[in-house]
Amino acid sequence: MTRQLLQPIAALVSGTVFGFGLVLSGMLNPARVQGFLDIFGVWDPSLAFVLGGAVMVAFIGVRTMYRLDKPAFDETFQVPTKKRIDAPLVFGSALFGLGWGIGGFCPGPAVASLSVGLTESFLFVAAMLVGMTIHDRIWSRRG
Amino acid sequence: MMAYLPSLLGGMLIGISAVMLLLLNGRIAGISGIVGRLAQGTNVTTNLAFVAGLMLGPVVFLYVFGQWPDVQITVGWPLVVAGLLVGFGSRMGSGCTSGHGVLGLARLSSRSAVAVATFLTTGAVAVAVMRGAGL
């Protein structure tokens, strides 16, 4: 099979496992996410296990990557090379966190929740796409 | 402890998914990046396939457990502000909970460690302010 076919198949399977993992872990539910972020109130620590479990497994994958020349279906590994901690990183992450706390949604769970069919999910994802577009097409291209 | 088991298992599945995308396609499973590139029209087929899979996740859950997952959204209009901030902020900060949180920390990236510490802090502040304002 050609790579044009294998890459989307790998992405589809990976996406499905990701989406199912989000649901099983509780990340899909904004009320749970806000409970996790509510460290000054009634803190629900369970979502720390999501990050812990995911990082543990991903760490093994990253170690494996370092011993391979190239991925199975492509010529190169495309991983970020930037090292410098700059203003956009900190400022952008700060804004992202504010939105994450207010809505209880980050991009993965918001997109995955669309299939559940709540109007709020569509509203959030539409606003998120507008925010991304404002950044990518206007903010980052400003003179 | 048993209450944390689904969260741990779900997290490990997210990790397995990220490892698959990394070792098969050589790509970082960062959702803001994938969705952002899709919106820009870059590498459409593969990015669209991942997003389609993401939305299939809850459907698989429905077939396995016989019910849709809980999605409880309590905020009203601030949800639009939240969406704008999440979209703009994740692109400006080069990542979100997946790219920085999962893969960045697994790569021992100091940029991602800073990003995660920053968004966890402002996320907690946002929730505290919302609770205080009764929203």
From TrEMBL, chain A:
UniProt keyword list: Membrane, Transmembrane, Transmembrane helix
InterPro entries in alphabetical order: DUF6691
Short name of one Pfam family: DUF6691
Residues passing through the membrane, by range: 9-27, 47-66, 87-105, 111-134
Domain of life: Bacteria
Protein name according to UniProt: YeeE/YedE family protein
Lineage: Bacteria, Pseudomonadati, Pseudomonadota, Alphaproteobacteria, Hyphomicrobiales
From TrEMBL, chain B:
Transmembrane segments: 6-24, 44-65, 71-92, 113-133
Membrane topology field: Multi-pass membrane protein
Record keyword Amino-acid biosynthesis present: no
Cellular-component GO terms for this entry: plasma membrane
Alphabetical UniProt keywords: Cell inner membrane, Cell membrane, Membrane, Transmembrane, Transmembrane helix, Transport
Subcellular location: Cell inner membrane
Protein family according to the UniProt entry: Belongs to the TsuA/YedE (TC 9.B.102) family.
PANTHER family: INNER MEMBRANE PROTEIN YEDE (PTHR30574), SULPHUR TRANSPORT DOMAIN-CONTAINING PROTEIN (PTHR30574:SF1)
Protein name: YeeE/YedE family protein
